[in-house]
Design goal:
294 residues; alpha/beta; eight-stranded mixed sheet; two-stranded antiparallel ribbon; 7 helices; 29% helix
């Protein structure tokens, strides 16, 4: 419902530092050579935000009960403070249990308008938690906050693409919010050059705390341009001097259990970033807390 992607310019303007080059016909080397990004995500702020979201703002955010609305309000406010245009994409959802009456959902869609309003790069993580989850810090408070922190850094620049940062709702009910949004994008004729999914990404190299070891982050690409985008990601990882052994890359991904799947099914290219913890992470929703993350 409502506008899909908000493309009006910000009042007051944002200082321009760089214009993103088009991905088509760009080699990885050329792409990196054109970028001079001085504004970077703030790791400490991200950790503080995760702690705040998971413990005080909205520890239980599912089924339109408890703090579900509080999470939506908080995300919208944070994106607006960063200078992005924010809309709520409302859709007919599912009940938490999968039975009973339909439960409406709301994706939080934050946009940085680019030179091309119909050509998008989309980032996303789901802000809803599993039923009975306490804090849902790793799944997926981590991806929610990483998406927000990327938006804050990206807001300091002008871009060729329009950048969209999404907080998906009802991932736990079956990718409902992301599927509704991807479907609407396709119907409206938007081009999505790449969708990047962040789900359970709170542990990664070079984090070494309390005896934890290096944790690889895998990048699984699918869709029509998966090999091209995988090559770009590999070049960026090398540029950042990330160890190759901790950055496994796969192509030909058809989907999976997270929000990249609807984009691949809509014939868009997407990547799912997953962290493979070196220790067994406590996946029971009642102990998925910020304090249990190394």
């Amino acid at each position: 419902s409502g506008q899909i992607v908000s493309n009006h310019s910000q009042s007051g303007g944002v200082p321009a530092a760089v214009v993103s080059p088009p991905l088509t016909n760009m080699t990885a080397k050329d792409l990196l050579a054109t970028l001079n990004l001085t504004e970077k995500p703030n790791a400490k702020r991200a950790v503080d935000d995760l702690e705040s979201l998971a413990t005080s703002v909205a520890p239980q955010r599912y089924g339109n009960i408890l703090q579900h609305d509080a999470a939506r309000d908080w995300l919208e406010a944070e994106y607006k403070k960063a200078g992005l245009n924010v809309t709520r994409f409302k859709f007919d959802g599912k009940s938490v249990s999968g039975v009973g009456p339909m439960s409406p959902g709301q994706d939080i869609i934050a946009t940085l308008p680019g030179a091309d309003p119909k050509r998008l790069i989309v980032f996303g993580g789901h802000y809803d938690g599993a039923e009975y989850a306490t804090e849902a810090a790793y799944d997926d408070g981590s991806g929610t906050i990483i998406t927000l922190e990327l938006a804050r850094a990206a807001a300091k620049y002008n871009w060729t693409h329009t950048l969209v940062f999404a907080g998906w709702d009802q991932e736990e009910q079956g990718l409902v919010g992301s599927a509704a949004f991807a479907k609407r994008l396709k119907e409206a004729g938007y081009e999505v050059d790449l969708y990047m999914n962040f789900d359970m990404v709170g542990l990664n190299w070079p984090a070494k705390q309390f005896g934890a070891k290096d944790a690889p982050i895998s990048a699984g690409f699918g869709g029509p341009r998966d090999k091209e985008m995988a090559a770009l990601w590999t070049a960026v990882a090398e540029h950042l001097k990330y160890p190759a052994a901790l950055m496994p890359v796969a192509t030909g991904v058809k989907g999976g259990g997270s929000d990249h799947t609807p984009f691949i099914q809509a014939a868009y290219t997407a990547v799912a970033f997953d962290v493979l913890p070196p220790i067994q992470y406590p996946m029971a929703p009642t102990i998925d807390t910020s304090h249990s993350m190394n």
